[in-house]
């Protein structure tokens, strides 16, 4: 019996027995009657046929089909606590778990598939190319990459296609939540911060993602105990993309083109951006596939309804009296994560642990308290506050001295520490300089961590591991130089100075070609020797025990790796080259332990330094002084020769 003799009721059941979407479309195109019957298939059935054809027709898999269906599962869960918990559980299983969740609760029509495939050429591929040029292979191929070829060189690995879909999926999932903040009078439902962060934590696997005080990463999904540590670095890559200048300028230009001259969208530094502009930027970046046409198509090619939607969103934000509430999360300098979709800050929380082992101080949080119920996984312990990073506008940041702290008179005595020279900065200024360098240390830590990861990859990973190892060793050498300078300024709070002098109590140094060079290099040893003297105010926290041991180990590696990029001939000519050193593999060094112990010592030293500043300033009747913006000059001219 031929198919045409079967009743329509039977023909309509055929999709349940067809193997994939290709067979389905071929059968539908064979005759009009079969087409009419097959086109009655439910969207969920068509989605399952499409899934059977992945990844051949829907790559990257599973991101393509998740992006095509994420808005449906978002609508299914939004406003329903039980369903939202089910969605979070799907996130926590990773992108494959979210994919299965979409197959269960969503569907596709043939028109949806056609529209999404057309978007690949007008939106998806152009956006992927832009991301590749700002964080992918094309970016790394820029000539003189590390020497001015790009404005923000960074050691990351970005799979541009995957990053593109990860951002699109975020918008499809959470774009509806933005409506609740654009139209607060309607009291619309929205997904909370933790739901959004769960998406970034588990659906963007990253080898640096780990628990820290205030953030718990569950051992599920890509982090399940039976799996190897994720090799991807997707969170760090997307964090770089969302914060980099190219991405921000691209969006600023696109928004200007839609709003017109009267509503020019200027492009300030991220720290200086007004909350309304930040909210508009986040709102537009959270619109999913539709929203990305803003940066991939000229205005005259963008769907007119969406252009009007953008302008309406701008008007809605202008009518708001105050910004959405924020919750202070993270570590070190807490990150203000908005209750409204906030992709640049949402992605920062799960990968924040790579910014070093510093913990955060809840007292540094915003005056605006979160009204969401507390989550035991996010409780915040009380520890010493340390700055997270330096900014281009330090005086306007919350790490800057308060206005009253800058009114110190230069004629006022500086305390009674007899070791302080007449031209030595006062304790408060030394402390401020220490804090600034700590900011630099924290900023550089993710670069160091990513460099170590690349340098310890297998030889067949496709990365030039030998080159990566050399670059990491040089990075560590430079990192130790900053670490040493931080210690010198911390000593300066107590009036203790360090010189390159060779004292009689010290063993005879290896002089190399001349004594002046030896004295210059003796400076680095004297820094640690000063800490190890029992009379040193910082001896108890930095000059003894495990902290001292790790400082010595770090200095030894600094000495060993300062010539890492030299050729054999160049190294032999170097005065301090040690030809008989045995080369230990990088994997044998526990850098996390080394730096963690040192940072613990610095935190304890910071507490002592603050007590010292308080004693000195209270004794003289002065307010705590801070550095001016111009005093950043100290970072380049104070210790140039000692850093050799």
UniProtKB/TrEMBL annotation:
Q: Polar residues bias located where?
A: 409-420
Comp. bias intervals (Acidic residues): 366-378
- Which parts of the sequence are annotated with region: Disordered? 358-429
What top-level branch of life does the organism fall under? Eukaryota
Compositionally biased tracts (Basic and acidic residues):
399-408
State the protein's name.
Answer: Uncharacterized protein
């Amino acid at each position: 019996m031929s198919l045409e003799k079967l009743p329509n009721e039977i023909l309509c059941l055929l999709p349940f027995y067809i193997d994939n979407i290709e067979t389905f479309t071929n059968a539908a195109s064979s005759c009009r009657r079969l087409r009419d019957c097959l086109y009655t298939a439910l969207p969920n059935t068509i989605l399952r046929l499409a899934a059977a054809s992945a990844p051949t027709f829907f790559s990257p898999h599973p991101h393509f089909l998740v992006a095509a269906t994420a808005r449906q599962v978002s609508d299914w869960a939004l406003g329903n606590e039980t369903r939202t918990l089910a969605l979070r559980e799907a996130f926590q299983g990773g992108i494959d778990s979210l994919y299965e969740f979409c197959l269960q609760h969503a569907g596709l029509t043939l028109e949806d598939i056609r529209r999404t495939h057309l978007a690949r050429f007008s939106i998806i591929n152009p956006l992927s190319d832009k991301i590749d040029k700002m964080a992918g292979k094309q970016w790394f191929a820029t000539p003189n990459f590390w020497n001015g070829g790009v404005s923000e060189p960074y050691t990351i690995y970005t799979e541009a296609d995957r990053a593109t879909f990860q951002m699109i999926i975020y918008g499809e999932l959470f774009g509806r939540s933005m409506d609740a903040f654009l139209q607060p009078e309607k009291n619309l439902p929205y997904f909370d911060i933790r739901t959004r962060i769960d998406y970034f934590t588990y659906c963007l696997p990253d080898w640096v993602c780990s628990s820290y005080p205030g953030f718990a990463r569950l051992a599920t999904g890509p982090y399940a105990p039976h799996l190897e540590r994720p090799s991807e670095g997707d969170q760090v890559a997307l964090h770089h993309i969302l914060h980099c200048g190219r991405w921000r300028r691209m969006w600023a230009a696109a928004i200007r083109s839609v709003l017109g001259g009267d509503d020019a969208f200027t492009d300030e530094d991220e720290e200086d951006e007004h909350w309304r502009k930040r909210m508009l930027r986040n709102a537009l970046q959270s619109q999913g596939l539709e929203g990305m046409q803003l940066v991939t198509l000229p205005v005259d090619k963008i769907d007119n309804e969406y252009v009007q939607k953008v302008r309406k969103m701008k008007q809605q934000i202008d009518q708001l009296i105050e910004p959405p509430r924020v919750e202070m999360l993270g570590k070190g300098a807490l990150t203000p994560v908005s209750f409204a979709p906030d992709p640049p800050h949402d992605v920062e929380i799960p990968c924040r642990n790579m910014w070093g082992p510093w913990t955060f101080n809840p007292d540094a949080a915003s005056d605006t308290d979160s009204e969401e119920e507390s989550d035991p996984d996010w409780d915040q312990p009380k520890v010493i506050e340390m700055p997270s990073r330096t900014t281009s506008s330090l005086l306007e940041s919350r790490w800057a001295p308060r206005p009253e702290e800058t009114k110190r008179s230069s004629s006022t005595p500086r305390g009674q520490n007899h070791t302080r020279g007449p031209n030595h900065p006062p304790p408060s200024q030394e402390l401020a300089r220490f804090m600034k360098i700590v900011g630099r240390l924290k900023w550089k830590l993710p670069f160091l961590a990513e460099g170590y990861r690349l340098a310890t990859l297998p030889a067949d990973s496709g990365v030039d591991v030998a080159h990566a190892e050399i670059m990491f060793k040089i990075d560590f050498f430079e990192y130790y130089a900053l670490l040493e300078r931080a210690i010198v300024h911390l000593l300066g709070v107590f009036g203790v100075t360090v010189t390159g002098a060779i004292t009689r109590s010290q063993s005879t140094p290896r002089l190399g070609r001349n004594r002046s060079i030896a004295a210059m290099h003796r400076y680095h040893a004297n820094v640690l020797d000063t800490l190890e003297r029992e009379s040193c105010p910082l001896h108890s926290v930095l000059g003894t025990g495990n902290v001292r041991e790790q400082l010595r180990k770090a200095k030894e590696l600094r000495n060993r790796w300062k010539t890492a990029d030299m050729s054999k001939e160049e190294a032999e000519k170097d005065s301090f080259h040690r030809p008989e050193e045995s080369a230990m593999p990088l994997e044998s060094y526990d850098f996390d332990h080394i730096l963690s112990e040192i940072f613990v010592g610095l935190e304890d030293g910071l507490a002592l330094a603050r007590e010292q500043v308080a004693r000195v300033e209270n004794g003289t009747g002065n307010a705590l002084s801070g550095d001016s913006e111009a005093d950043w000059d100290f970072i380049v001219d104070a210790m140039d020769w000692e850093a050799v």
